[in-house]
Amino acid sequence: MQELDKLNQLTESHGELRPGKGLISGIVALSLAILCFLGVLAFHFPEYLTTPQLRQSYNVDVIRKIMYAALVIAGGIAIFNTVFGRARWLALAAFALVALTALLGGHKVPVNDFADNTPYIGLDWFILDLLGSSLIFIFIEKLFALRKKQPVFRPEWQTDFHHFIVNHMVVGFVLLATNLLVHKLFGWAAKDGVRFWVQELPFPIALFGIILVADLVQYWTHRAYHEVPLLWRLHAVHHSAKSMDWLAGSRQHIVELLITRTLVLAPIYVLGFSKEVIDAYIVVVGFQAVFNHANVSVRLGPLRYLIVTPNFHHWHHSQDDEAIDRNYAAHFAFLDHLFGTAVQSDRKWPDRYGVQGDYVPDGFLKQLAFPFVWKKS
Question: pTM here?
């Protein structure tokens, strides 16, 4: 019971983790053990816990090897920390999850044929994205940190992590809802002749085209979120983050997510870009969405006037007066320069993040309700 209380205190806290006491390695072990446990559940119930579009893209044998390596690493760290008395409560929790995962079959759970049209949550997408994003972007943030004193577990990280979990778990609902809306609202606009011409474009031109089309829609949609009071109620949740890092971009109201994805996917569907081009676009947008919120000092010289960088997007999240309602583009910074909404400042980086007045509450559930209960004073 005491160990459980310590775990609860750990998840509710924030701040820098001091090396040498087993906390850092213990958290790594526990995180890997949790992901492995979720992975074994996905192996047992793939029809309900995995994303149909995603499971066609990854190699299950490779996933099994990754899970095995993660189990070995988590178990090894847990045993080492237990033997040498380093945060034993954390080590024992990690070891217990490793043992439970192994008892449930671990990486060897067979996956037989299963129905492909069942309702599901995207547990596999959550696992792969969390593992990949945390490994890549935490490493990048430590190498090129903008705010070097900002810890990985900074204030309000729990809220952003809850947004990350929910927005990834309901990926199936989001995909289904957006596809239905796109086909219902914009199906009439699809023309075979235009689609054929678009699909015949060379890959580099088509990739540039899909990003440009998506960003033009994203720009005006994003601008509407700022200029239309009713839409700002939703978007204020995203802007309420007071710290910028790889996890901050996950803070997004589910209704905003549905609206934006529907509007961005509409021209992509109508124009008929090929699957290869759409897949490449998804990689680009996935990377930029995380990287541009990251706590990294990257400006890219003159290229920053063409491409959206962390510096460009950090200004968009600033409370500083010169940054309000500026820098809307998601990919191409030249759109804001073209439409006159680029930040003009003598300073390289903003001072403060969040909404002016800090009126958005902290906590996932409170932020979920916020657009519908907020009464502007």
Answer: 0.92
